Amino acid sequence: MNFFKKIFSSERKDSNFTEEAKQSLDKGLEKSKSSFFSKLTKAVAGKSKVDDEVLDNLEEVLISSDVGVNTTLKIIERIEKRVSQDKYLGTEELNLILREEIAGLLSETNTSNDSVFSIPTDKKPYVIMVVGVNGVGKTTTIGKLANQFKNAGYSVVLGAADTFRAAAIDQLQIWADRVGVPIVKQQMGSDPASVAFDTLQSAVAQNADVVIIDTAGRLHNKVGLMNELSKVKKVMQKVVEHAPSDVLLVLDGSTGQNAFEQAKQFTAATEVTCLAVTKLDGTAKGGVVIGISDQFQIPVKYIGVGEGINDLQVFNKIEFVDSFFN
């Protein structure tokens, strides 16, 4: 049993991933998986062993599956090493090899194997500042995140600091009502830092466990966005010294390569600590999770695999790869 097989067997054994979550993940990745394997089948057609032509074809498959050029080259390089060690590596083994190498790549950034919504015991309230462009599912992700934390037994407060759009405040209010958690908001055009400050003061007064702060999703002026997010951070730290505990960038997985560009822009504008990749169920571009995690060396913390309120999951790299390649 090689190293990566050991990763799969030990980490899956210790995983707290539920059967319901697994079924949801399998269903959510169905389009990506179907598209990938139809391409892979064509890539190895008529070949009995992994040679240069198969590797060239595989490179095309990975890039067209939105894994990204740099990450694809890393994966191909890893497989070339395997081929050089075993001159007679068969194409029927390619699925397993790919699965192992991608799991290994994801393990370098995504070190946690937790599958439940939990917070560090030393950070209360646990403050999540959410960033991302409009339309990626940011507000929906916040609502589903609040629901999952509440279901896990935590008290949650939402902060509507995206004051640039009235719709953003209204949408967050709808989610707060749906989930049954308090929300702190002001009028459209108010100072986002002021809303964040009020939200944290309210959370501390309520002894809340989790605070989720929405922020404006515009990217037309990176300097303006950088200044705004920096101000929000500084103001929050006047109330909670460690805030924000996480800066969560929400990306729309269905946009493929555009998600890479958004990640590039936001990581330049603020210090992003983790990612949420949404809308994986409606697309064949699930490979984007692998590429973004590797390229930006930022862990994927949550993935959206369906429209249901419980279809936001804590990202489990082993289960993700298992669903993708099973």
Descriptive keywords:
326 residues; alpha/beta; Four Helix Bundle (Hemerythrin (Met), subunit A); Rossmann fold; 2 domains; eight-stranded mixed β-sheet; 8 strands; 53% helix; elongated
- At the first level of CATH, what is the class of the largest domain? Alpha Beta
Given helix and strand content, the structural type is alpha/beta
**What portion of residues is helical?**
40-55%
Proportion of residues in β-strands = 5-15%
Q: Work out the radius of gyration.
A: 21 Å
CATH superfamily of the largest domain: P-loop containing nucleotide triphosphate hydrolases
CATH architectural arrangement of the largest domain: 3-Layer(aba) Sandwich
EC number: 3.6.5.4
Membrane topology: Peripheral membrane protein
Family: Belongs to the GTP-binding SRP family. FtsY subfamily.
Domain SRP54-type proteins GTP-binding: 299-312
